[in-house]
Write a structure and sequence with these properties.
The protein is mainly α. It folds into two domains: about 100 residues, no CATH class; about 140 residues. The chain has ten helices and no strands. The radius of gyration is 29 Å and the shape is elongated.
């Protein structure tokens, strides 16, 4: 993606200069596409095309600019029809150059803002759980990690293409629905009285509910992993997606261990309820 942006910006810069040169030469047809012919094949580009900057372009002679354009066209097998789709007016080209150059920086700034917002939310949740008993506080903090992941995924959809964003949003909704079920089941397990646990054992129904939801979540995680692998997006976006995947996986491991432990708690007369 970064390489594609760099190449596209270089080409658009060249088109912008070529368009300006065409206007200065007296051309009055705004729809005219600059011919991609070799004006001076003896002039080599000053550096690799992918590394060219706007300053490099400004310092080039017209012949050098044309040589770079010819190289880009040849390397990318572009035609005049391709240029027609990309160009239009010199002003539009310049606008697209500005949009392209700022896009990556803007994305990373937005991602950092999202991370800061999520950190503030995490801090607030941790503060709210401090007044609870240690066991319940730990349980709530683990559940809050899932809530954070759901919120992050819902926000990350805005950084993806519409189709992938819709899928990520749907997966996040599924995570949230499963969370509601597992929270209820876990609270049911935590509230089981010691006397009842001693005689009847663990709450097998609640444990089964947790395992069912964990299996559904695992399927959604697998789909999310596939989307992550195929995502042609900014590296910061991919990294944040991976963080949410890891967070969800850690919570599912905890829930499975909790369910297994609950099922193994048989009690003195647990066999009577089987």
């Amino acid at each position: 993606m970064k390489k594609l942006i760099s190449i596209t910006m270089s080409l658009l810069l060249l088109l912008s200069f070529a368009f300006a040169a065409n206007n200065e030469s007296g051309s009055t047809d705004g729809d005219t596409i600059v011919e991609a012919t070799m004006l001076d094949s003896r002039v080599p580009p000053p550096k690799p095309v992918d590394n060219l900057t706007a300053e490099d372009m400004m310092n080039m002679t017209p012949s050098e600019r044309q040589a770079v354009m010819d190289k880009v066209l040849a390397d990318k097998n572009l035609t005049k029809e391709d240029l027609a789709k990309m160009s239009g007016s010199g002003e539009m080209i310049r606008e697209r150059i500005m949009d392209g150059s700022g896009n990556q920086t803007q994305t990373r700034e937005r991602i950092q803002a999202l991370k800061n917002e999520m950190q503030q939310m995490r801090t607030q949740m941790q503060t709210e759980s401090q007044n609870l008993k240690a066991k319940k506080s730990e349980m709530l903090q683990k559940q809050n990690e899932v809530r954070m992941a759901v919120q992050s995924l819902q926000r990350l959809k805005d950084f993806l293409d519409p189709n992938m964003g819709a899928k990520v949003s749907e997966i996040a909704k599924g995570f949230n629905n499963s969370l509601k079920e597992t929270v209820q089941a876990e609270e049911q397990i935590q509230s089981r009285g010691g006397l009842k646990r001693f005689f009847a054992g663990g709450d097998s129904a609640a444990a089964e509910k947790i395992k069912t939801q964990a299996n559904q979540t695992q399927n959604r995680l697998q789909e999310l992993k596939q989307l992550h692998e195929s995502c042609d997006c900014d590296e910061e976006v991919k990294a944040m997606l991976q963080e949410q995947i890891q967070s969800m996986e850690q919570e599912q491991t905890r829930l499975r261990e909790l369910a297994d432990k609950e099922e193994k708690s048989k009690g003195l007369f647990g066999w009577l309820w089987k």
